[in-house]
């Protein structure tokens, strides 16, 4: 799962760099507005790449790890419905 997210991140960031470099290397020679539009698209890609890289998958269980504080863990388990208090 981690390798897939990492690969997607590097593909998105590579596309971002490709857009930016090609916009100001040779696209600007034909059309400056097209080069600016390419840079605007390239500007949107890094936040999307970060979201893709940090997205949790169904197999990722790191958020369920206990914190070490028994009272806090009991409270979160009760909220998640893992253990029910018998009062």
Notes on the structure:
The structure is a single chain. Helices cover 72% and strands 0% of the residues. It has 87 residues and is an all-alpha fold. The longest helix is centred in the N-terminal third of the chain and has 29 residues, at 2-30. The radius of gyration is 22 Å and the shape is rod-shaped. The model has no long low-confidence stretch (mean pLDDT 84).
List keywords for this structure.
3 helices; mainly alpha; 87 residues
- What do the pLDDT scores average to? 84
Order of helices and strands: HHH
The tally of beta strands, per DSSP, is 0
The biggest beta sheet reads: none
Radius of gyration: 22 Å
Distance between the termini: 41 Å
Number of helices: 3
Oligomer: single chain
Lay out the secondary structure:
Blueprint: H1 2-30, H2 32-54, H3 70-80
Helix pairs in contact: 1-2
Gist of the model:
With 87 residues, this protein is an all-alpha fold.
């Amino acid at each position: 799962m981690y390798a897939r997210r990492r690969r997607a991140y590097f593909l998105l960031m590579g596309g971002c760099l490709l857009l930016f470099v090609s916009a100001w290397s040779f696209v600007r020679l034909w059309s400056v507005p097209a080069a600016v539009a390419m840079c605007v698209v390239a500007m949107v890609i890094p936040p999307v790449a970060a979201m893709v890289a940090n997205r949790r998958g169904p197999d990722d269980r790191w958020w369920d790890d206990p914190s070490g504080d028994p009272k806090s863990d009991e409270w979160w388990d009760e909220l998640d419905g893992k253990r029910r208090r018998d009062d």
